[in-house]
Amino acid sequence: MKSHPALTTSLTDDVAEILIGEQEIQRRVRELGAQITRDFAGEELLVIAVLKGAILFLADLIRHIDLPLSVDFLAVSSYGAGTRSSGVVRILKDLDEPIEGRHVLIVEDIVDSGRTLDYLLRTLRQRRPATLHVCTLLDKRERREIDVPIDYVGFEVPDAFVVGYGLDYAELYRQLPFIGVLKPEIYE
Ligand code: IMP
Ligand code: MG
Predict the structure, then answer these.
(1) What is the pTM of this model?
(2) 136 lines ligand 1 (CB under 6 A)
């Protein structure tokens, strides 16, 4: 069988630089889980992951949260194949359950301009949760356009488009176990 050339090379070959390695991510995720466990001691959590970028982070993080918790998902409009936010946010998939009176923790992959998170916070606050907190794996603070409150940050990252550990470029690269920067020719 004749295979496509792309299938004969590794996805990792498209990565110019690894910003945060697998071990470093896992160490930090463990710390965050322990911190959340302490901060919410005695409470029951509702962990809301923002699809699709937060799925790897969510899966690892909740393994380190030693509290009764449930998980729900929310999907919002994304960049499409581009690398910059359109600024327009839309809910593509809403939560399955009401959040009124619950202790809610939003889990995000990355906060960039802050528009997505700002929209989510405004929307979810209207549903009257008991508390509403935010945990993001990555914070691209330099690019912030809207000031949003973030309670837990895994890592601060520079202004570069990153992929891996859930984050995609045109839906690819999510499964990489590290956070990396793509080679410029990938975007061209
Ligand atoms: P914001 O609304 O500009 O803060 O963008 C938030 C969303 O944009 C994130 O949840 C990601 O899905 C996406 N995003 C922002 N920066 C990156 C990046 O460097 N790589 C991959 N996705 C990104
Ligand atoms: Mg996202």
Answers:
(1) 0.92
(2) no
